[in-house]
Predict the structure.
Amino acid sequence: MSLSPFYRKTTNEFVTILIDPKNNFVADINGLNRKTEGAEFASTAGNFNRDGITAQLAYTYTYSSAKHLGAPLLSRRAPGTKERRRK
């Protein structure tokens, strides 16, 4: 039986932005911070050589969150679209 916790934090991950859909031109910008944490549990029961049967159980819990840094390219509206105003 084993329990393995994990934690990963990254900063300035690249975000791919589609610039020109006709030519499939993209740009990568630093625009994302991500945090992932969780735990993995694994257990084995029985002995196949002795009992003729064995079983394994595994479970992984993961929690992940991402925060966009608000880069200028991400906050602009698409060309040719109308600006919506809230009433």
Notes: The CA atoms of residues 42 and 58 lie 4 Å apart.
